[in-house]
Amino acid sequence: MTSPIDWRAAAARAASVVPAGPPVDRTGAAALVASLRRAAAQAPPLVAGVTGLHEASAAAGDRPPLVVDRARWAAAATETFASLTDGVLPPPRLPGAARVAGEQLGVVLALLGTRVLGQFDPYAQGRPDGTGAGRLLLVAPNILTVQRQLDADPTDFHLWVCLHEQTHAVQFAAAPWLADHLRAALARVMEPVDGDADGEDAPAPVARPARRAVRGRAGAVSAVPGVLESVLEPPQREALADAVAVMSLLEGHADVVMDEVGPTAIPSVARIRAGFEKRRDERTWASVLVRRLLGMDAKLAQYRTGAAFVRGVLGAVGHEGLNAVWAGPERLPTADEIADPAAWVARVHG
Asked: Which Pfam family is an annotated match for this chain, by its short name (predicted)?
């Protein structure tokens, strides 16, 4: 089935408009890349020390990171989106619509590409023997930008960033079913509801309001839960709420782990966290506009809601008890439980 989004056009447009990043000479760039690779290797054992997920951490440490520029991150993001939406979105209905959608998405990715520090992509192909699925991307220009803004110690800051992203790698290694679970959740958000028949026979039908939203935006994919909720029927809203709960868990868990590693490994961790939280809360008119456009306020809420859930569970049953969440989809917190950790503990641990 033809995709409603021209992914190559999206990657090309992002690469053509995203700024290169802060100035750095060849020696400085080489040192930055080397430091990030060291930090990525150091992070998994530290994650294991906090979480007790030793086997999963070893698997995460077996993947070399990709240190990329902003354009390469945008290209990787299109690959992930293409994988996630394969067979889910309806085909384009107008000539050139996929190209237009790709161009629009490319502009959004260019904006995001100036802000993302790192990303673990669980959908990247592994080695030919079937092992090592997933990849860690570290966006060097953005890490350098924030490092300079915070006046952070480079070694400490690089390890702090890698702790967050490698915690995601550990999560997916501990729960090999999780990537497919999230892919299925997206499909449920976009599947038809009872009585959704408007005379169209699309190979991969989606809910009527979501279908209209896709057409109205020339196929662009929105990352803003509030926007999605406004065009979804109740069954899809429930599926979206559960998916957001899972994402909140993943982000909050990573935030808690990176802070629990503590000053023994990262002497300036308190200063970095304080500076980073201040940066997250910045309220200039430009930052508010960009964050609302890209749905980043919703993302920040995920970090904080998820972190509160994780801390609540840890207070009751510790990391060993929290690790039950990786045993299977039925152990994941629901949309109600992510705001009520005691309810999850009662259901899972009795």
From this structure: Zincin_2
Q: How far is CA 296 from CA 129, 249, 275, 288, in A?
A: 37, 17, 18, 9
Residue 264: CB atoms within 10 A of its CB come to 9
At 23, the amino acid letter reads: P
Binned at pLDDT 50, 70 and 90, residue 25 comes out as very high
- What's the gap between Cα 156 and its chain centre? 22
What pLDDT was estimated at residue 190? 72
**Contact status, residue 236 vs residue 187, Cβ threshold 8 Å:** no
This prediction's pTM: 0.83
For tokens 């490319």, what's the residue? Answer: 106
Quick one: tokens of 204? 């991969």
User: Which residues, including other chains, have CB under 8 Å from residue 314's CB and lie 6 or more apart?
Assistant: 256, 321, 322
Task: State whether residue 67 is helix, strand or coil.
Answer: strand
Whether the pLDDT of residue 173 is over 80: the answer is yes
Task: Report the C-alpha gap between 343 and 350 in whole angstroms.
Answer: 10
Provide the residue ranges of all domains of the chain, joining segments of one domain with +.
7-283
Contact assessment for residue 341 and residue 253, using Cβ atoms and an 8 Å cutoff: no
